[in-house]
Amino acid sequence: MAQYDAIAHVYDRLNAELDYHAWADFVEACFDRHLSVRPSLVLDLACGTGSMTHALAARGYDMIGVDRSPEMLTEAYARAGEAMPLFLCQDMRSFELYGTVGAAVCCLDSINYLTGDGDLAACFATVHNYLDPDGLFLFDVNTPYKFAHVYGDNAYILEDEIDGRAVWCGWQNSYDAATGLCDFYLTLFEEDASGRYRRTEETQHERCFTHDTLLSALTTAGFAHLGTYADYAFTAPGERTERWYIAARAIKH
């Protein structure tokens, strides 16, 4: 599974276009849509640098962030304000909490990083175990359309500056439709004080899941599927939808 160790310190800068305030608005809208009352304690699974963790903490939620990358969690700790979430360095397939939570969110296609046999089932079962009865599970995934038509075998480049020094990140995609696996070969160049560039490389992997596969895994883990949306306005997905936002309820007897 991916850890983003090599690019943790520049991850947020290279993803500066992400509007976590709008995303947090959507999360709260899902709370209001699918829960009788908003939860007080929320898990941010595969929290990375804690952008969503901090966004929800600022709104008054007690937050737990779980991620298996120490480097990403270091960035999350560095950004903490007055509302310090609890951050745990654990695997999203087998994490352990001190009790249950009212809701769990898993953002930015982290579920797609569950590439091994049984990984999806293990993750969903663990999330179900730590949710309150009728607790809400919100996650998003990249769709088959995105894997085939946006990722494919395409290459992309991101450029920015950090403290006046250039940062360049390029990645080459390699998608195998037969296996559903997509490899991302990332190369990072960072300018130092002397004007020289330091090169770092990292390989990431994602798995493409069909909607039926996700729903089947949710049902097996004990969830009831509540809805799949194409955007923050709860629009129904279409053939060219690039991201599914999925809501499920933990059924416990």
CATH class of the largest domain: Alpha Beta
Distance between the termini: 33 Å
The biggest beta sheet reads: 7 strands, mixed
Any idea what the shape is? globular
Helix content: 25-40%
Reading the helices and strands in chain order gives HHEHEHEEHEHEEEEHEE
Spatial strand order of the main sheet: 3-2-1-4-5-11-10
Q: How does CATH name the architecture of the largest domain?
A: 3-Layer(aba) Sandwich
Structural class: alpha/beta
Unreliable stretches, pLDDT < 50, 5 or more residues? none
Tell me the domain tally: 2
CA gyration radius, whole angstroms: 18 Å
The CATH topology annotation of the largest domain reads as Rossmann fold
Mean pLDDT: 92
Q: What is the CATH superfamily classification of the largest domain?
A: Vaccinia Virus protein VP39
Strand residue content? 35-45%
Q: Give the beta-strand count.
A: 11
Q: With helices defined by DSSP (H or I, 4 residues minimum), what is the helix count?
A: 7
Helix-strand blueprint:
Blueprint: H1 11-14, H2 20-34, E1 41-45, H3 51-57, E2 62-67, H4 70-78, E3 86-89, E4 101-106, H5 119-129, E5 131-142, H6 144-151, E6 155-162, E7 165-176, E8 181-191, E9 197-207, H7 211-221, E10 223-229, E11 243-250
Parallel strand pairs: 1-2, 1-4, 2-3, 4-5
Antiparallel strand pairs: 5-11, 6-7, 7-8, 8-9, 10-11
Helix pairs in contact: 2-3, 5-7
